[in-house]
Here is the input.
Amino acid sequence: MDAKSINRRELVRGLDLSATTSLVVGTIIGTGVFLKTARMAQSAGTPALVLLAWAAAGLLSLAGALSYAELGAMLPDAGGEYIYLRAAYGSAPAFIFGWMRLAIGSSGSIASFGAAFAMFLSALTPLSSGAMKAIGVAVILFFTAVNCLRVTIGGRVQAALTLAKLLAIATIAGGVFFFAPSASWEHLRAPAGVPAWCGFPAFGAAMLSALWAFDGWNNMPMAAGEVRNPGRNIPLALILGMAVVLLVYGALNLAYCYALPIGEIANASSTLHGTALPVASKAAQSFLPRFGAQWVAIAALLSTIGALNGSILTGARIPYAMARDGLFFASFARLGERSAVPVAAIIAQGLWAALLVVSATFDQLTDCVIFASMIFYAATTAAIFVLRRKQPNTPRPYKTLGYPVAPVIFIAVAVWLVINTLWTNPYESAVGLGLIALGLPVYFWQRRKGYGEVTNTR
Here is the structure.
């Protein structure tokens, strides 16, 4: 039986504009905005360059989101980039992308959120290393179970968590600007003797850290098959969601630089291990000396589980779409009888992410995810040009704002970041390339074995 006609059960379009926008905001705002500014300060050296790196990463992500908005409205099916790459380049590149997302992209993001949840929890109550790994696994499995229910439930959970995290972050930024006695605009000046420009490799490394904090803007289109009125809601949710994230990140990082000298930011921790506090905790202590670190930990916990839930919901739609096309295990294409969600794909993704939690560090996971993802972000954005040539008459409810300049800039910067990461982070780059390369033999193996020939998905 043809793979395209095998599944008579369909995904339910249960995500309205509110839930869809919450997916955009909720899967972007996670751990990075609390942790990564310290690493950026170490690379960039001055407050101006740190803020510039945040702005550059944000505008780059916005350019990518505007490009994805056209593709998502044009091809509103579950799978996101997998669908766009398949339409533009064929099944093999699409499969390699889907393999990358399952192996490290989606699963690595989920694992990093699980690890970060345990790290933030340890700021409230001391935990051993083994307990932290166990908690990271447990929170991943819990939200995996939640997302095996109806997609409307996952969407409501996402909306509630997103609102909670925005309110918590607003209190940190507002507290610094209105109640921190030691805060000063003088902190935004460059330290004496520090050059005004750090060099392109160092600036690229700072941008890579910021891009982890922005990563997730591509996630919502993965669930496009469950979005109501997708021609309208997908582009609108991407644009509104990115606007909210840019505002939140700009305000919070300006608050960091207003509250603390750049030296204190650079000496902050990019994790919650050791004696050094994260930059967000230091900033909060400027107006809450006794409880600042605890409040940041609570805000970060809310932020982390929101990103975790959204990543689980969206990421599992890629192996589901691959299986629907006959390119992956048949069980991944089956939908739950009552839930109408790809239960097997969700569970497999959750189990693999749980394994990653116990086998890698937070920074290793985030660097591998961003490096591997940027390769396919560039290829997917280039699909706009390919599909406008191959499918000129396909309806496009939304066309990319700033075309062709915005997509070209995104592609060029993404390629530069990939090259720069090969130079500055060779280990993480090698791991990312190795995981991508493993997809090729898997692709030909499953084609030869016939795992893609699904006969029943009920």
Summary: The chain has a mean pLDDT of 88. The CA atoms of residues 237 and 264 lie 37 Å apart.
